[in-house]
Amino acid sequence: MSVVINVDFSQALRKNKKLQALTRKAIVRSLNRVGDQARTAASKQIREQYNVKAGDISKASKTIRAKASRLQYKIFVRSGRLGLMKYGARKTNKGATVRIKKTGGRKLIPHSFIAPWKKGESEQWVFLRDPKLPKTHRTSRRKDKAFYLKDAEARRSLFGPSITQLYANKKVAKKIRDTIDQNLTKRLNHELNFLSKGMVNKR
């Protein structure tokens, strides 16, 4: 998934060749400033709706900043499904509880438990005891596949939504658009005025 902030000032630049360098510099500054604001607003909106940490959102998103030769600011979001520990899973006597969305309370997952993926690892995961899975001596190499215990009841790892899915939420997408619409023109005018004053003072 990607979010692109793109502005077409090609006609204005052609008509004002003397101001091309200044105008491009103002556009680049504006795109990068507002792009950063949009990314921050998206992270805040996600955390208002979902029980995830800012660090996990930041790790899943990367930016390509605007420059004079490319008047675009891009946000790329790529993430696999998050283990339920990332959504604040807790251990109880009846099974693990988790709270994915901020609205509503914690939910109990019957027959679930918290344990390391492999013995000796510190990172914890939420598993579901699944008697339908066959017992086997093999273990899955991939953490998005079922995991089997040797000579024990089979277990299946549990996941919540990925950061990519959270970015695709309608409220998050709207927050990004609103942040751009409310700030880009204002920021561009500010940058143009600031740079223009500098040009006048140099004369």
Describe this structure in words.
By secondary structure, this protein is α+β, with helices and mostly antiparallel strands. It folds into two domains: 2-80 and 164-202; 83-160, no CATH class. Helix content is 40%, strand content 23%. The protein has helices at residues 10-15, 20-49, 54-60, 163-167, 170-202; strands spanning 2-6, 61-64, 72-77, 81-83, 90-92, 95-98, 107-110, 112-116, 124-129, 155-157, 159-162. The protein has a three-stranded antiparallel beta sheet with strand order 1-3-2. α2 packs antiparallel against α5 (170-202). The longest helix has 33 residues, at 170-202. The radius of gyration is 24 Å and the shape is elongated. The model is unreliable at 148-152 (pLDDT under 50).
Which structural traits does this protein have?
40% helix, 203 residues, 5 helices, alpha+beta, 2 domains, 3-stranded antiparallel beta sheet, elongated
Largest sheet: 3 strands, antiparallel
Quickly count the helices.
5
Across the major sheet, the strand order is: 1-3-2
Runs in which pLDDT lies below 50 for 5 or more consecutive residues are: 148-152
**Whole-Å distance between the termini?**
47 Å
Helix content: 25-40%
- Indicate the proportion of strand residues: 15-25%
Number of domains: 2
Sketch the topology as an H/E string, one letter per element: EHHHEEEEEEEEEEHH
Tell me the total number of β-strands: 11
Q: Average the pLDDT over all residues and give the rounded result.
A: 83
Helix-strand category: alpha+beta
Report the principal-axis shape: elongated
| Backbone CA Rg | 24 Å
